[in-house]
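lol ok so funny story. i was supposed to be doing the assay writeup but got distracted and ended up predicting the structure for this chain instead. priorities right. anyway since i did it might as well share w the group, maybe its usefull for someone
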Amino acid sequence: MTFTQKHLLGIEQLRPEEITSVLDLADEYVDLSRRDVKHSDALTGLTQVNMFFENSTRTQASFELAGKRLGADVMNMSMQASSIKKGETLIDTAMTLNAMHPDLLVVRHPHSGAVDLLSQKVNCAVLNAGDGRHEHPTQALLDALTIRRAKGRIQRLNIAICGDVAHSRVARSNVILLNKMENRVRLIGPPTLVPGHFADMGCEIYDDMEEGLKDVDVVMMLRLQKERMDGGFIPSEREYYHRYGLDADKLAHAKPDAIVMHPGPMNRGVEIDGEIADDINRSVIQEQVEMGVAVRAAAMDLLARNLRAARAPETAEV
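and the output, tada:
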């Protein structure tokens, strides 16, 4: 497998063949998760620390579950009530962590670039679990795995990403990955929520849902991130759902076999109709959750292999 990264900070740093390596290994971990005995020794002897400066049920739970299934010693640090609240800097936190000798550090942080800064100060592999509006690489990878398993490929597809693109690190990571894998990406939403600079990244931009969904293979809905909004981005949730919420009438403009995705958590009746979200023939939202554990296991496994290889000369000297 081709994967040379020391950290997983974003999709931007990954080459297409490295993306494929993660997805191929994740396929194996899907099989592991479906066994009666869900255990591997890939991370045995290694310590995984999860540091979440922002709350996240799905991402933290799947990283924790992935680490435990692979045999790591997993520790969750509650950063909401940590020394950061008492004035400790991120650098001080990194120095404290280094003294604990972790091997894998999973970090979610509200500020773009904070995870990158931490990676420069610690002696372990760092995985970005979401930083500000910057990136969320494992979400893009699990979305790619979900698409590949449903469509048989992750190249040359028409993919629509709909909703609050402006505040979404998920959208940004997905755009970068899907472009790298030679897909046609459309962004759909009101002008207030779809920044024009995405056109420079090769995306087609639509403010009409029905026009944008015409003949697409994949419909990826995004949550309205009201916690990141500081102004009137939409007239009302009711008006937003009328124009941009995914329902049966709008979905009818996509291909008959188009799949529906959502990174969660969902606002039913705001960006997606509940019946569409639960439609087992179209929705792959539950599959995305399952793929999340497999992708995060694969990413940690590959980084651990590189970490062990880098430490091998030190071990040999001792």
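The two ends are 29 Å apart (CA to CA). The mean pLDDT is 92.
back to the writeup now i swear
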